[in-house]
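Task 17 of the worksheet. Students: predict the tertiary structure of the chain below and write it out as structure tokens. Keep your answer in the requested format; marks are given for formatting as well as content.
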Amino acid sequence: MTTTSNRDADLPADVGLADPPPKFARRTWLQSAWRELLRAPPTAWCGLIVIVIYVLAALFAPLITPYPETEIVGGAYEMWGEQFILGTDQLGRDMLSRLIYGARNTIGIAFVTTLLAFLLGGALGIFASVLRGWVDQVLGRFIDVLMAIPQLIFALMLLSIVGASVVNLILIIAVLDSTRVFRLSRAVAMNVAVMDYVEAARLQGEKLGWIMSREILPNILPPLVAEFGLRFCFVFLTVSALSFLGVGIQPPTADWGSMVRENATLITYGDITPLLPAGAIALLTVAVNFVVDWFLQKTSALSNEP
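Model answer:
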């Protein structure tokens, strides 16, 4: 005859239905993400592969480049060959090495700038949507003034005044680009700020930071993540354009925009070397847009999957 202990008899009926441990939940999330990747269209896969290649090239540039970034290793404008796969530039530096180092500098600066723009613009946008009133009006009118000025011309003027350095470049473009992020984050946060659970959090006495970070931000992440990809492309192109004009990333640092300008003379002689950094810029922009389009389809009503 078997007996049941009092401790077992007092256990609730749903004891086996407890929440899974964090490791199991993490594994389930990874499996779900992998299944979504397997169902991704070919364009999204192409974009992801290109982005991964660019990131690996940027991270491991010192290990995979045949020559240092700024070292003069040959004559000016040497042709493509075994020693210099993509030839040399106007000073005799290896083009392949500078092209790879350019990925690290251009992509790294564009990513940091975009991240700073989202931290600034996103925080102000959510802040304005929660407080509303005169705070929303003052921030909105100030943003309108900044958006009324053409971004590239304004950046050129500011960089000419304060000097062309990496820090100034990042700060100026981040502030100017944060205006677009402010508009989007404020628009999507306005729809969430009036929800019942946000009002309940206010009545419970939760602080402003808690409401912004725990109640509103998680519910507006999909459009912000998609906008991050698009903003990165715009910032990436802006940095390259400013470098091409001579006020962006300064020599001898390798940058794709300045590399196009420095080797533009070769186009006259039918040499496509200046088109290589331009092609690298275009390829990354298209790849990011492929991934953003797929992400938007998965996180919006455009997806027809059950």
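Marker's comment: The CA atoms of residues 80 and 87 lie 4 Å apart. Residues 1-19, 301-306 have pLDDT under 50 and may be disordered.
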